[in-house]
Amino acid sequence: MFLEHLIYSAAIALVVGMIFMHYTGRNPSWLIIVMTIFPDIDLVISRIMTACNLSYPVIINHGDFHNLISLMFFSLVAALILSRYGMKFTDVFICSAIGFIAHFLEDWFVYLDCYSFFYPWSLRVYGLAIIPETGDLLGLAGVRVLLFGVVLLALAVGVRMYFDGKWTIQSHIMSYFDVGRSVKYYAEVLLSGNSEKLE
Length: 199
Ligand SMILES: [Zn+2]
Known about the structure:
Blueprint: H1 3-24, H2 30-35, H3 41-51, H4 68-82, H5 89-110, E1 112-115, E2 126-128, H6 143-163, H7 169-192
Antiparallel strand pairs: 1-2
Helix pairs in contact: 1-5, 1-6, 4-5
The chain binds zinc ion.
């Protein structure tokens, strides 16, 4: 379950982005797609800790970032950092939280009794495996899960085209280039050490 997170969350971001634009004139929905990957970083950290035999300050296991505490903590950290660089605190927090929730829903959809999403309030594990994840596409995705995601993305494109007359697939792709240019600019300024340019 890797590619699917991107596809499913891209579908969600398309619709959320439209609602955001309508009410605020801003569209930070690309953050949904970035942050939706975040919960699985617990797997990367867990593997590094196991490989290096690390247990300090705490042992991180896969699943540890799949709960409401992580959602709030990392969304807060993202909002605190990105609000320093011109993004609105609430935009970042909301989009990060949606990215996390999208990830949780996607895992719940494909895995059976997988994670304690409501930890520490409840230890109960949730997961329905409505379309079970098989990882049969080079371990990066399950073909059936991915196909369902593509259908969902096509539906989201349809919804966006129907309700947002100005939106086209081309303009959407171009908007991601804008995000890329901004990230490149911030990276260059930060690396040059001249943070006054960020204002
Ligand atoms: Zn996950």
